[in-house]
Amino acid sequence: NAPWNDPQAVPLIRFEGISKRFGDFTAVEHVDLAIHKGEFFSLLGASGCGKTTLLRMLAGFETPTTGRILIDGQDVTAVPPYERPVNMMFQSYALFPHMSVADNIAFGLKQDGLPKAVIRDKVAASLDLVQMSRFSGRKPHQLSGGQRQRVALARCLAKEPKVVLLDEPLAALDKKLREATQLELVNIQDRVGITFVMVTHDQGEAMTMSSRIGVMNAGRIEQVGSPVEIYEYPGTRFVADFIGAANMFEGTAKGGEGAVSVTCPELEHDLAVQGAPKLAAGAAVTVMVRPEKMGIGRDKPQSGQNWAEGVVSDIAYLGDVSIYHVRLASGRKVQALRTNLHHGEDSRLTWDDPVFLAWHPADSLVLTK
Ligand code: ATP
Fold it and tell me: Which SMART domains does this chain map to (predicted)?
């Protein structure tokens, strides 16, 4: 049972009422956030949402305008970066090119004035953690991109921080290497058990790597949750739209809680919804359905299903799946995803085909914010 699922567990990191203003611009607005020991926590958001500023305040490179930050019970708000038990992993191109792998890692430890023998042990231990012991004598240019990344991490771990901070650590890598390195970083983090806090704008990266994600929007944290929670149960329209693709139907609730129905002006019939929060009759709501939850076909769906009619307007063939864009009578487009299990399928839909979309009431999420 993970500590972040235990309401009694004491968090390792705590942001309390943290805001940051630059002049009259508010970059971070009243963030309360708890991160637990052993987590791989990601701050996810679009460019300019304040995620880097939040990370830099944790590192001590920026001072909050309001609020305080605690690490392991200690108020570090006024503590300088080098005295905090955190260390930032810089991108691999920040390695010193003229130094060997071992010397790169030893560099910071020498600056701390540690005895030679201690440095040697720490360098060896951190290289071992990232499984790079064999490469200790090489120069950075004699390593692959992924190996350089591991050295950058070893350099960071050698200082034995309680928290490792990563700001878009994989942004410089190409897609294949990035995906391989994502899993590698997670494996190393799991092995060392140190808390990682990462900033990324890449939702796939955050979903792949994180125990929990804090989704940020305009300086605020919109939602904190595991990748599954954030995707399956987004709390707001913003999160639903930002993580994955979302079909949204605007409507008004008929009232009630649990199994309710929603009247949507653009559909001729009401939508049935299961697991809805308590809704006042006439409340404005959005019904959200993920593309993979939406069936698509030529036949009218069975009763008990929600459905909509439309015409195929675009098909994105992605190999494993195809995404069908379907134009409704209202003119709005929705997406349905189909797995391409059988190749050369006769019933394959094509442009301008009239189709029915169908989905289960339990796959319709009601959003009120
Ligand atoms: P990106 O992914 O582009 O780095 P971000 O979410 O990390 O975006 P921040 O770097 O935290 O965003 O910046 C948030 C906002 O604060 C931006 O609008 C930025 O221009 C502004 N900002 C950041 N640092 C400063 C600064 N030193 N002075 C003035 N404004 C700043």
Answer: AAA (SM00382)
